[in-house]
Amino acid sequence: MKRRVLMIVAGTVLLAxxxxxxxxxxxSDRAKLMRVYDEELDQLxxxxxxxxxxxVARDRERMWRTVPAPGDPPSNDEVSxxxxxxxxxxxxxxxxxxxxxxxxxxxxxxxxxxxLFKYDFSFFPxxxxxxxxxxxxxxxxxxxxxxxxxxxxxxxxEQKWIR
Length: 163
Description:
- By secondary structure, the chain is of the alpha+beta class.
- It has one domain (22-162).
- Helix content is 43%, strand content 17%.
- It contains six helices and five strands.
- It has helices at residues 2-21, 27-36, 41-48, 52-62, 82-94, 102-109, and strands at 67-68, 78-79, 130-136, 141-148, 154-162.
- The strands form two sheets. Strands 3-4-5 form a three-stranded antiparallel β-sheet. It has a two-stranded antiparallel ribbon with strand order 1-2.
- The mean pLDDT is 81.
């Protein structure tokens, strides 16, 4: 009996030592990861009762946010947090972009540069004459394809889930 208890204690200590050695419980990595998964149910519940105009205006700001990408070794890359991914979906579904030029689309979406954004390229293959907006945390996200007509105006918007 004593030997069994001793083996269980020794196994637990060994497992904890391995976890610490490999950094599974490092607070800095967890903090980085939690910056990506930043949306809480309480936050969504509060927003559910607000008017759509207020939500879209706030989401236009939120969708362009980036946070440092989690990973080891650390990098300077940034990714979209979950709140930005969800905000982008709400904005793209709330505004009508068809008929606009890219300049008008950027003004409507409140587009801004994201110089350190890791995923500043198309996830899915695109054809000539398609503008892409991507919001991705590295595990999932949204890609919005804006197909342009001959007059360089948005003819259609396609929303694709990245998994």
